[in-house]
Amino acid sequence: MSETQMPSARTRVVREPHRAVYDREFVYKILDEGFLCHVGFTVDGQPFVIPTSYGRKDATLYIHGSAASRMLRQMKDGVPVCVTVTLLDGLVLARSVFNHSMNYRSVVILGKATLVDDPDEKLAALRILSEHILPGRWDDARQPNDRELKATSVLRMPIEEFSAKVRSGPPIDDEEDYSFPTWAGVLPLQMVAGELINDARLPPGIEVPRYVIGYTRKR
Amino acid sequence: MSETQMPSARTRVVREPHRAVYDREFVYKILDEGFLCHVGFTVDGQPFVIPTSYGRKDATLYIHGSAASRMLRQMKDGVPVCVTVTLLDGLVLARSVFNHSMNYRSVVILGKATLVDDPDEKLAALRILSEHILPGRWDDARQPNDRELKATSVLRMPIEEFSAKVRSGPPIDDEEDYSFPTWAGVLPLQMVAGELINDARLPPGIEVPRYVIGYTRKR
Q1: Among B183, B190, B215, which would you mutate to test the A interface (most chain A Cβ atoms within 10 Å of its Cβ)?
Q2: Whole-complex ipTM
Q3: A39 chain-B contacts, CB cut-off 8 A
């Protein structure tokens, strides 16, 4: 599907279309800030939605296969999936209940996910996944051996058919509600790192790596 | 489906079954800490996964219908959905790449979602949704009028067929990796509230309500 066809009929945002964004770089920015996605697939007419991690290289999304155990059983040339990434930015408190909202950025990608079979591509994909979540970690850890590589599944999905949806900024109330005597504004929400927990079996003298300190997803 | 049948064949956790929990109270605790879910449904063989808010009353999940515009078009007696709630608790950094993981708590609920038609139930459901996200807010805001109530859709879903999956605690490395010279431990992650942003049109003298201060999802 070529870029000029975005949005497709399937990714066109139906509800609140003014919040839709179909720009590829904008979508990448959201994908690069998140690392947890929800993968949807259908088995015998029943949809399943499973959380898992992902990474991105150019226009390819790599998805950790732990989500896929159900799906993989029936997959050969790829199965239709929907990958959704949501970044929650805050609660929007309006004067009226009706105008309450959330600030968020979300991406929906439709397409077929296929198994990464080739060991070299799989190793490269796992590195992309790892570096996406915690840049610098891969080279600092013990690399996967053949057995581990075989025991891990990675899915590949093209970022071709997609849309983003965004809400930001203050509450928008009906004009006559601005005199309603309640507090209104935004309660920002953010995912932050807490205090590091050393593993109990850490030998003395091993320092916390620089890439872990001050961890943030802001890009 | 009676409680004794949990897990069903469909909700039985296939991958890492030792992390599965089928206890209803445990599931409620996760549902009550979160308020953002990912709803999966299928249209013409294509799965869609849409983020939206939810609330719970006893064994009923109420889902904000903004997610459902696509789905509602084809829905009469309810459509099969999957509602997934994921709380991310941290990155688990092991000595080996293979044993890296995340700490999380997630719930998957399968079933049919139906539209809440009755205006009284809809109003009650919206209140449940609102109080689930920010207890105390409903009574402090301008209540929905008939027009607004009609313009809002709410879905109802029984919490009958479900499973939870949990990982917590330190990394678990292969015994021979404990001597590998890299830092290992947990990087906790948490959703926290930032500094409140007053609406620009807030009249002087309106104070920040107590229920907004120190907002946390911990239950």
Answers
A1: B183
A2: 0.94
A3: 49
